[in-house]
Amino acid sequence: MTQQPITLTVNGRNIELAVEPRKLLSDALREDCHLTGTHVGCEHGVCGACTVLVDGRPVRSCLTFAIQMEGHEVTTIEAVGSAQNLSVLQQALHACHGLQCGFCTPGIVMTFEAFLKETPDPSEAQIREALSGNLCRCTGYQNIVAAIALAAQRLREAGGHGG
To answer: What does the pLDDT look like over 15-73, one tens digit per residue?
Structure first.
């Protein structure tokens, strides 16, 4: 299959790539952009580990073709925070012990970076509903739910929304 040139806007940077039309966004991010924070789990869009933001909305990158991203803004976990400067949500996950192995964490963070912008004062039921699209095999989810509630509270107190 012939490769086609595309320009992806990833984390605010234009990146020119040559990809086969069938190349998945998750593979382009990991292999071509060297952004390995986007994890690939089930490859069927069920586990949520590959979640990135496209134009601010959560998208399963394992179900999206890279070629479809021309003209869209893709945000990955690498743009959310750094080891020296964690986002409010990442700080809350750390404080509440809302992660264990960390494989699912990037997808959860990306899901809730968008969710907390749309729902700044979520109920526990709303958090659990939004979290239902992200599978974690290590935890019982309680600490993740507590962390998201804490992040929402901190963001409201700071007068901001999102990371």
So the answer is: 999 999 999 999 999 999 999 999 999 899 899 999 999 999 999 999 999 999 998 99
User: Structurally, what CATH architecture does the domain formed by 88-158 represent?
Assistant: Orthogonal Bundle (1.10)
Dump pLDDT digits (tens) for 69-107: 998 999 999 999 888 999 999 999 999 999 889 899 999
Q: Where in the chain is the domain with CATH 1.10.150.120?
A: 88-158
Tokens (6 digits) for 43: 């490859």
Q: Under CATH, domain 4-79 is a member of which superfamily?
A: Beta-grasp domain (3.10.20.30)
CA distances, 116 to each of 28, 108, 147, 156, 163 (Å): 27, 12, 12, 10, 9
